[in-house]
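Field notebook, page 276. I keep forgetting to write these up properly, so this time I am using the form the group agreed on. The chain and the ligand, C2E, are recorded exactly as supplied. Prediction of the bound pose follows.
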Amino acid sequence: QAKEQGKNGYVIYTDELMHDLSEKITLEADLKNALENGEFILHYQPQICNKSGKLIGVEALIRWNHPRQGLIYPDKFIQIAEETGLITHIGEWVIKQACIQNKKWQDYHFEPIKMSVNLSTQQFLHRNLVDFVKSVINNTGLDPQYLVLEITESMAMDFDHSLHVLQQLKAIGVGISIDDFGTGYSSLSYLKKFPLDYLKIDKSFVRDIMEDINDANIVKAIITLAHNLNLAVIAEGVETQEQLDFLRKHECDQTQGYLYSKPITVEQFENRLRNK
Ligand code: C2E
Ligand code: MG
Ligand code: MG
Ligand code: MG
Protein backbone atom coordinates (compact mmCIF):
# COMPACT_ATOMS: atom_id res chain seq x y z
CA GLN A 1 0.00 0.00 0.00
CA ALA A 2 2.65 2.45 1.07
CA LYS A 3 4.69 1.53 -1.97
CA GLU A 4 1.77 2.17 -4.26
CA GLN A 5 1.12 5.57 -2.76
CA GLY A 6 4.77 6.32 -3.14
CA LYS A 7 4.61 5.29 -6.75
CA ASN A 8 1.51 7.33 -7.36
CA GLY A 9 3.08 10.30 -5.66
CA TYR A 10 6.06 9.95 -7.95
CA VAL A 11 3.92 9.75 -11.07
CA ILE A 12 1.93 12.82 -10.14
CA TYR A 13 5.13 14.66 -9.37
CA THR A 14 6.71 13.92 -12.75
CA ASP A 15 3.47 14.73 -14.59
CA GLU A 16 3.43 18.12 -13.00
CA LEU A 17 7.10 18.59 -13.65
CA MET A 18 6.72 17.61 -17.31
CA HIS A 19 3.77 19.92 -17.67
CA ASP A 20 5.65 22.86 -16.15
CA LEU A 21 8.68 22.08 -18.25
CA SER A 22 6.84 21.81 -21.54
CA GLU A 23 4.89 24.95 -20.76
CA LYS A 24 8.15 26.71 -20.10
CA ILE A 25 9.70 25.43 -23.33
CA THR A 26 6.66 26.57 -25.32
CA LEU A 27 6.67 30.00 -23.72
CA GLU A 28 10.41 30.27 -24.25
CA ALA A 29 10.02 29.53 -27.98
CA ASP A 30 7.10 31.94 -28.35
CA LEU A 31 8.92 34.63 -26.40
CA LYS A 32 11.62 34.76 -29.08
CA ASN A 33 9.19 36.23 -31.62
CA ALA A 34 6.94 38.16 -29.26
CA LEU A 35 8.81 41.44 -29.57
CA GLU A 36 8.94 41.56 -33.39
CA ASN A 37 5.29 40.40 -33.52
CA GLY A 38 4.32 43.36 -31.37
CA GLU A 39 2.76 41.16 -28.69
CA PHE A 40 3.83 43.17 -25.65
CA ILE A 41 1.71 45.92 -24.19
CA LEU A 42 2.03 48.19 -21.22
CA HIS A 43 -0.64 48.68 -18.61
CA TYR A 44 -0.53 51.72 -16.40
CA GLN A 45 -1.22 51.98 -12.67
CA PRO A 46 -1.84 55.42 -11.13
CA GLN A 47 0.20 56.75 -8.22
CA ILE A 48 -1.66 59.23 -6.03
CA CYS A 49 -0.26 61.98 -3.84
CA ASN A 50 -1.56 61.38 -0.30
CA LYS A 51 -1.68 65.10 0.52
CA SER A 52 -3.45 66.46 -2.56
CA GLY A 53 -5.23 63.31 -3.75
CA LYS A 54 -3.91 64.10 -7.22
CA LEU A 55 -2.63 61.61 -9.76
CA ILE A 56 1.07 62.49 -9.95
CA GLY A 57 2.69 59.34 -11.27
CA VAL A 58 2.20 56.05 -13.02
CA GLU A 59 3.94 52.69 -13.14
CA ALA A 60 4.27 50.96 -16.50
CA LEU A 61 3.67 47.21 -16.17
CA ILE A 62 4.31 44.85 -19.05
CA ARG A 63 1.84 42.23 -20.30
CA TRP A 64 2.23 39.72 -23.08
CA ASN A 65 -0.68 39.42 -25.45
CA HIS A 66 -0.06 35.80 -26.39
CA PRO A 67 -1.73 34.73 -29.68
CA ARG A 68 -3.18 31.53 -28.19
CA GLN A 69 -3.04 31.94 -24.41
CA GLY A 70 -4.29 35.50 -24.14
CA LEU A 71 -2.89 38.02 -21.69
CA ILE A 72 0.10 36.69 -19.75
CA TYR A 73 1.38 38.50 -16.66
CA PRO A 74 5.05 39.29 -16.03
CA ASP A 75 5.44 36.82 -13.15
CA LYS A 76 5.03 34.09 -15.79
CA PHE A 77 7.56 35.28 -18.36
CA ILE A 78 10.06 37.82 -16.97
CA GLN A 79 12.07 35.02 -15.35
CA ILE A 80 12.22 33.11 -18.64
CA ALA A 81 13.16 36.29 -20.46
CA GLU A 82 15.99 36.81 -17.96
CA GLU A 83 17.28 33.25 -18.38
CA THR A 84 17.26 33.42 -22.17
CA GLY A 85 18.75 36.90 -22.37
CA LEU A 86 15.66 38.15 -24.23
CA ILE A 87 15.00 40.54 -21.36
CA THR A 88 17.52 43.09 -22.63
CA HIS A 89 15.56 43.89 -25.77
CA ILE A 90 12.19 43.54 -24.06
CA GLY A 91 13.37 45.88 -21.30
CA GLU A 92 14.60 48.40 -23.85
CA TRP A 93 11.24 48.26 -25.56
CA VAL A 94 9.53 49.01 -22.21
CA ILE A 95 11.71 52.06 -21.47
CA LYS A 96 11.24 53.43 -24.98
CA GLN A 97 7.49 52.79 -25.07
CA ALA A 98 7.00 54.32 -21.62
CA CYS A 99 8.90 57.48 -22.58
CA ILE A 100 7.10 57.85 -25.91
CA GLN A 101 3.77 57.49 -24.09
CA ASN A 102 4.60 59.95 -21.34
CA LYS A 103 5.82 62.53 -23.86
CA LYS A 104 2.60 62.04 -25.83
CA TRP A 105 0.49 62.77 -22.72
CA GLN A 106 2.47 65.95 -22.15
CA ASP A 107 2.00 66.94 -25.79
CA TYR A 108 -1.77 66.42 -25.29
CA HIS A 109 -1.41 68.94 -22.44
CA PHE A 110 -2.22 66.62 -19.58
CA GLU A 111 -0.49 67.76 -16.43
CA PRO A 112 2.99 66.19 -16.45
CA ILE A 113 3.33 63.02 -14.37
CA LYS A 114 6.26 60.76 -13.56
CA MET A 115 6.47 57.41 -15.31
CA SER A 116 8.07 54.56 -13.39
CA VAL A 117 9.63 51.65 -15.25
CA ASN A 118 10.86 48.37 -13.71
CA LEU A 119 14.39 47.31 -14.57
CA SER A 120 15.36 43.65 -14.58
CA THR A 121 18.60 42.38 -13.10
CA GLN A 122 20.18 41.67 -16.49
CA GLN A 123 19.13 45.06 -17.75
CA PHE A 124 20.60 46.84 -14.74
CA LEU A 125 23.90 45.01 -15.18
CA HIS A 126 24.02 45.51 -18.96
CA ARG A 127 26.79 47.87 -19.97
CA ASN A 128 24.62 49.63 -22.56
CA LEU A 129 21.90 50.70 -20.08
CA VAL A 130 23.11 54.24 -19.45
CA ASP A 131 23.67 55.02 -23.13
CA PHE A 132 20.31 53.50 -23.98
CA VAL A 133 18.44 55.64 -21.45
CA LYS A 134 20.34 58.69 -22.69
CA SER A 135 19.39 58.00 -26.30
CA VAL A 136 15.71 57.43 -25.45
CA ILE A 137 15.57 60.70 -23.52
CA ASN A 138 17.19 62.51 -26.45
CA ASN A 139 15.06 60.87 -29.12
CA THR A 140 11.70 61.23 -27.38
CA GLY A 141 12.36 64.72 -26.01
CA LEU A 142 10.92 63.68 -22.63
CA ASP A 143 12.19 65.80 -19.75
CA PRO A 144 14.22 63.18 -17.80
CA GLN A 145 12.67 64.18 -14.46
CA TYR A 146 9.49 62.46 -15.70
CA LEU A 147 11.16 59.06 -15.96
CA VAL A 148 11.79 57.00 -12.81
CA LEU A 149 13.71 53.72 -12.92
CA GLU A 150 12.81 51.06 -10.34
CA ILE A 151 15.45 48.65 -9.13
CA THR A 152 15.32 46.13 -6.30
CA GLU A 153 17.77 45.63 -3.47
CA SER A 154 18.87 42.24 -4.80
CA MET A 155 19.94 43.77 -8.13
CA ALA A 156 22.35 46.10 -6.39
CA MET A 157 24.41 43.51 -4.52
CA ASP A 158 27.59 44.62 -6.27
CA PHE A 159 27.82 47.92 -4.44
CA ASP A 160 30.59 49.65 -6.42
CA HIS A 161 29.17 48.77 -9.80
CA SER A 162 25.64 49.74 -8.79
CA LEU A 163 26.78 53.05 -7.39
CA HIS A 164 28.61 53.82 -10.62
CA VAL A 165 25.59 52.99 -12.79
CA LEU A 166 23.16 54.89 -10.58
CA GLN A 167 25.37 57.97 -10.54
CA GLN A 168 25.43 57.98 -14.33
CA LEU A 169 21.66 57.55 -14.51
CA LYS A 170 21.26 60.34 -11.98
CA ALA A 171 23.48 62.57 -14.14
CA ILE A 172 21.01 62.10 -17.01
CA GLY A 173 18.36 63.48 -14.67
CA VAL A 174 16.08 60.48 -14.22
CA GLY A 175 14.69 59.42 -10.84
CA ILE A 176 15.68 56.24 -9.03
CA SER A 177 13.39 54.15 -6.88
CA ILE A 178 13.93 51.08 -4.71
CA ASP A 179 11.06 48.69 -5.44
CA ASP A 180 9.76 46.02 -3.03
CA PHE A 181 11.73 47.68 -0.25
CA GLY A 182 12.35 45.47 2.75
CA THR A 183 12.18 42.13 0.94
CA GLY A 184 15.81 41.94 -0.25
CA TYR A 185 18.73 40.65 1.71
CA SER A 186 21.02 43.61 1.30
CA SER A 187 22.38 45.75 4.10
CA LEU A 188 20.94 49.21 4.60
CA SER A 189 24.28 50.95 4.14
CA TYR A 190 23.64 51.49 0.43
CA LEU A 191 20.76 53.83 1.28
CA LYS A 192 23.06 56.64 2.30
CA LYS A 193 25.40 56.26 -0.69
CA PHE A 194 23.10 55.59 -3.64
CA PRO A 195 21.53 58.64 -5.34
CA LEU A 196 17.93 57.60 -4.66
CA ASP A 197 14.61 59.43 -4.85
CA TYR A 198 11.96 56.94 -3.72
CA LEU A 199 11.41 53.92 -1.55
CA LYS A 200 8.46 51.71 -2.44
CA ILE A 201 7.12 49.75 0.52
CA ASP A 202 6.50 46.20 -0.60
CA LYS A 203 2.88 45.16 -0.73
CA SER A 204 3.52 42.22 1.58
CA PHE A 205 3.97 44.71 4.44
CA VAL A 206 0.95 46.77 3.47
CA ARG A 207 -1.47 43.84 3.14
CA ASP A 208 -1.90 43.09 6.86
CA ILE A 209 -1.14 46.55 8.18
CA MET A 210 -4.46 46.73 10.07
CA GLU A 211 -4.21 43.28 11.68
CA ASP A 212 -0.52 42.69 12.23
CA ILE A 213 1.19 45.06 14.63
CA ASN A 214 4.61 43.98 13.32
CA ASP A 215 3.74 44.94 9.76
CA ALA A 216 2.30 48.23 10.98
CA ASN A 217 5.51 48.98 12.85
CA ILE A 218 7.70 48.01 9.91
CA VAL A 219 5.76 50.33 7.63
CA LYS A 220 6.02 53.20 10.13
CA ALA A 221 9.76 52.57 10.45
CA ILE A 222 10.28 52.53 6.68
CA ILE A 223 8.45 55.85 6.33
CA THR A 224 10.56 57.45 9.06
CA LEU A 225 13.76 55.99 7.63
CA ALA A 226 12.95 57.24 4.13
CA HIS A 227 12.11 60.75 5.32
CA ASN A 228 15.28 60.97 7.38
CA LEU A 229 17.20 60.13 4.22
CA ASN A 230 15.21 62.70 2.22
CA LEU A 231 13.44 60.10 0.13
CA ALA A 232 9.79 60.04 -0.80
CA VAL A 233 7.81 56.91 0.13
CA ILE A 234 5.29 55.11 -2.03
CA ALA A 235 3.13 52.34 -0.60
CA GLU A 236 2.20 49.64 -3.11
CA GLY A 237 -0.68 47.18 -2.85
CA VAL A 238 -3.04 49.55 -1.04
CA GLU A 239 -6.48 47.97 -1.31
CA THR A 240 -8.62 49.45 1.48
CA GLN A 241 -9.56 52.85 2.83
CA GLU A 242 -8.33 51.79 6.29
CA GLN A 243 -4.87 51.07 4.89
CA LEU A 244 -4.85 54.44 3.16
CA ASP A 245 -5.94 56.23 6.34
CA PHE A 246 -3.15 54.54 8.27
CA LEU A 247 -0.56 55.45 5.64
CA ARG A 248 -1.77 59.04 5.50
CA LYS A 249 -1.68 59.34 9.26
CA HIS A 250 1.93 58.21 9.24
CA GLU A 251 2.82 60.61 6.42
CA CYS A 252 3.47 58.18 3.63
CA ASP A 253 3.79 60.34 0.51
CA GLN A 254 2.13 58.35 -2.26
CA THR A 255 -0.24 55.46 -2.81
CA GLN A 256 -0.41 52.85 -5.55
CA GLY A 257 -2.94 50.05 -5.37
CA TYR A 258 -6.28 48.55 -6.29
CA LEU A 259 -8.08 51.01 -3.98
CA TYR A 260 -7.43 53.70 -6.58
CA SER A 261 -7.01 51.54 -9.65
CA LYS A 262 -5.68 48.30 -11.01
CA PRO A 263 -3.16 48.61 -13.83
CA ILE A 264 -5.25 49.73 -16.82
CA THR A 265 -4.96 50.14 -20.59
CA VAL A 266 -3.70 53.34 -22.17
CA GLU A 267 -7.28 54.32 -23.16
CA GLN A 268 -8.58 53.79 -19.62
CA PHE A 269 -5.63 55.69 -18.21
CA GLU A 270 -6.25 58.64 -20.51
CA ASN A 271 -9.82 58.78 -19.20
CA ARG A 272 -8.39 59.00 -15.69
CA LEU A 273 -6.09 61.83 -16.77
CA ARG A 274 -9.02 63.68 -18.31
CA ASN A 275 -11.15 63.40 -15.17
CA LYS A 276 -8.52 63.79 -12.50
P1 C2E B 1 6.14 45.40 -9.04
O1 C2E B 1 7.04 46.28 -9.83
O2 C2E B 1 6.34 45.36 -7.59
O3 C2E B 1 4.69 45.88 -9.45
C1 C2E B 1 3.58 45.86 -8.60
C2 C2E B 1 2.74 44.63 -8.84
O4 C2E B 1 1.71 44.62 -7.84
C3 C2E B 1 2.01 44.62 -10.18
O5 C2E B 1 1.86 43.26 -10.60
C4 C2E B 1 0.66 45.20 -9.82
O6 C2E B 1 -0.38 44.84 -10.70
C5 C2E B 1 0.45 44.60 -8.46
N1 C2E B 1 -0.44 45.42 -7.64
C6 C2E B 1 -0.65 46.74 -7.68
N2 C2E B 1 -1.53 47.15 -6.76
C7 C2E B 1 -1.94 46.04 -6.12
C8 C2E B 1 -2.87 45.80 -5.05
O7 C2E B 1 -3.51 46.72 -4.50
N3 C2E B 1 -3.01 44.52 -4.63
C9 C2E B 1 -2.31 43.48 -5.21
N4 C2E B 1 -2.51 42.26 -4.73
N5 C2E B 1 -1.43 43.68 -6.22
C10 C2E B 1 -1.25 44.94 -6.66
P2 C2E B 1 2.22 42.79 -12.08
O8 C2E B 1 1.80 43.84 -13.07
O9 C2E B 1 1.69 41.41 -12.27
O10 C2E B 1 3.79 42.77 -12.08
C11 C2E B 1 4.51 41.88 -11.26
C12 C2E B 1 5.98 42.19 -11.27
O11 C2E B 1 6.54 41.95 -12.56
C13 C2E B 1 6.31 43.64 -10.96
O12 C2E B 1 6.24 43.87 -9.58
C14 C2E B 1 7.70 43.74 -11.53
O13 C2E B 1 8.65 43.22 -10.64
C15 C2E B 1 7.62 42.83 -12.74
N6 C2E B 1 7.42 43.65 -13.96
C16 C2E B 1 6.30 44.24 -14.42
N7 C2E B 1 6.54 44.94 -15.55
C17 C2E B 1 7.86 44.79 -15.80
C18 C2E B 1 8.74 45.28 -16.84
O14 C2E B 1 8.36 46.02 -17.75
N8 C2E B 1 10.05 44.90 -16.77
C19 C2E B 1 10.50 44.11 -15.75
N9 C2E B 1 11.81 43.78 -15.76
N10 C2E B 1 9.72 43.64 -14.78
C20 C2E B 1 8.41 43.99 -14.80
MG1 MG C 1 7.71 48.11 -9.70
MG1 MG D 1 6.93 46.47 -6.11
MG1 MG E 1 6.97 43.18 -6.68
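OBSERVATIONS:
- The CA atoms of residues 46 and 58 lie 5 Å apart.
- The mean pLDDT is 93.
FOLLOW-UP: compare against the apo run.
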